[in-house]
Amino acid sequence: MSPIKNKLTLNIILIFSIFALITAYFIQYILGHEPCNLCLVERIPYFAAAILISLIFILKKHEKLFSLMVGLFFIFGAIISFYHFGIEQGFFKESLVCDLGNNNSTISAQDLLKQLEVKTVSCKDVTFKILGFSLATINTIISLLLSGIMCAILKHYEKNK
User: Fold this and answer.
1) Structural domains in the chain (count)
2) Under DSSP, is residue 134 helix (H, G, I), strand (E, B) or coil?
3) Which residues lie below 8 Å from residue 39, measured CB to CB, with a gap of 6+?
4) With contact defined as beta carbons under 8 Å apart, do 139 and 42 qualify?
5) Distance in angstroms (rounded) separating the CA atoms of residues 104 and 47
6) What's phi and psi for 125, nearest 5 deg?
7) Which CB contacts under 8 angstroms, 24+ apart, belong to 61-69?
8) I need a surface site. Which of 66, 76, 96, 121 has the fewest CB within 10 A?
9) CA 126 to chain centre
10) What confidence tens digit (pLDDT) does each residue in 129-159 have?
11) Is this prediction's pTM over 0.90?
């Protein structure tokens, strides 16, 4: 990859990350599908990519370090998304991450009634699908692809100088 192709690829990833975040918020706030806690965690790599790639273009230095960090965030995203997919399919049990909002300590009857009124979304419940695939499934595939692209950029980074 030439430096121009790297910049173009990074621009595409930046635009895609912003698009992914806008889509997630559209599904949440406009379409009314509440995300579970893992869905919220799965947004972190896209935020990080948007910030770090913007820093690459603004600072015009430390490109390799920022690219490495973006790649690591997408690897993290792929692992979390696969774990979420596994919970949806019943391969894994829900973890504490899925239960962050629920406090299992002793509570009063009034507090229990208040908690029942609050709508909580389980990580195993799929509330939104695109072409029959859950968002966790789609995010797993996209995160793996973006991880691979970032690895390709890093692999050819020294050749670009």
Assistant:
1) 1
2) strand
3) 24, 84, 121, 123, 135, 136
4) yes
5) 31
6) -90, 125
7) 63/6, 63/157, 64/154, 64/157, 67/10, 67/150, 67/153, 67/154, 67/157, 68/150, 68/154
8) 96
9) 16
10) 889 899 999 999 999 999 999 999 888 776 6
11) no
CA nearest 148: which of 74, 61, 63, 43? 74
CA-to-CA distance for 148 and 91, rounded, in angstroms? 25
Structure tokens at 124: 């195993």
Per the listing, tokens 């691979």 go with 148
Q: Of 46, 43, 44, 69, which is closest to residue 56 (Cα–Cα)?
A: 69
Q: What are 134's strand-pairing partners?
A: 129
Q: What is the CATH number of the domain that holds 155?
A: 1.20.1550
Domain residues for the domain of 113 are 3-160
Per-residue pLDDT tens for 38-70? Answer: 999 999 999 999 999 999 999 888 888 999 999
Considering just the CA atoms, what is the radius of gyration of the chain in Å?
19
